[in-house]
Amino acid sequence: MRFIGLDQFALFRDVGLRGCLPDGSEDPSWRGRHGERNALFAELLLTTGMRLAEAAHLLFCELPSSEACHDTDQRLFPFRLPAAVAKGDKARTIRLPVRLLRRLHDYAALERANAIERFAERSAVNAKTDALSAVEADRNMIVIVGDDGQRKRIRLDLVTPHDRRRLCNADDMNVAPAMLWLTETGAVMTPWGWAAVFRRASKRCRSFGIDIDVTPHMLRHSFAVHMLSMLIRAQLGMVMQDRSGGAAGDAAYRRMIGDPLQKLQRLMGHASITSTHIYLSSLDESRALVDAAINDWADALGDEETAA
DNA sequence: ACCCGATAACTGGGTTTCTC
DNA sequence: GAGAAACCCAGTTATCGGGT
């Protein structure tokens, strides 16, 4: 398993995906056209820990509304990841940073809207016999018209990735793809399309001597390792409080390791806790995090002994 | 802890699309 | 038209979950 630090991610995002030079300045020779879209997708993977296929198959209508994310003073927005796109059909709730959600709506209002326009202009080329036309759609369900002309209501969390790629929003005037992530011609960005984006970005980084090879799944691993270290640190703080309050004991120690792992298991959508355990060994690789936690722990114990 | 099958992710190579 | 970026497909590899 491989993961990257936040500094390395920033380099990958800015140099590889956005086409900047390593010093952060603009690269006039950069020809990429989707730098912001690609950087946003990478940040989505890193900040939520979603699998590539999960993030790639989100529908625009599933996103919390633009108004909702502007009205809230919360930093994170709970988002129910649909069962049909999650591995093993297991829906789970992830936390979407509101800052990112606003940028997703910005992307939808500009780049995605342009792509849909291109799609409409090329409607003769894009006409697909297997398209699934939704005449109504909201965050929970769509209404499609079947071959027999009957309207059918379908829950969005039951729409498979294959059908999501076919799904279009249709009214009397236009047909527009329903997926969130689109290519510049309005086609659906597939998981293998994203894999290629990451490959090119890594190659560009290496051309500047930045020795990284980032894949979408690496960002999920990175999310897990960072989240676990932060959960353990937060838990260490709670254990300190327990000890100072005189309620030390096995329960506190169990919580120190057990709770963060269980929280991470839920966030990652692992069916088995053994899959989550692999990130403990990754923490060993990231010695600085472990050392910092141990130092905190040692300092606290030292304080107690001095007091005694 | 290990093994195995199912599924997801990655890669290489080819094609298409776009900009200059 | 050339070159770069974007996209797609098929084969391979890695991950994950469940059973023992």
From TrEMBL:
Organism: Hyphomonas adhaerens
Gene3D superfamilies: Intergrase catalytic core
Domain Tyr recombinase: 1-292
GO molecular function: DNA binding
Entry keyword annotation includes ATP-binding: no
Protein name: Tyr recombinase domain-containing protein
GO terms classed as biological process: DNA integration; DNA recombination
InterPro entries: DNA_brk_join_enz (IPR011010), Integrase-like_cat_sf (IPR013762), Integrase_catalytic (IPR002104), Tyrosine_recombinase_XerCD (IPR050090)
Matching Pfam families: Phage_integrase
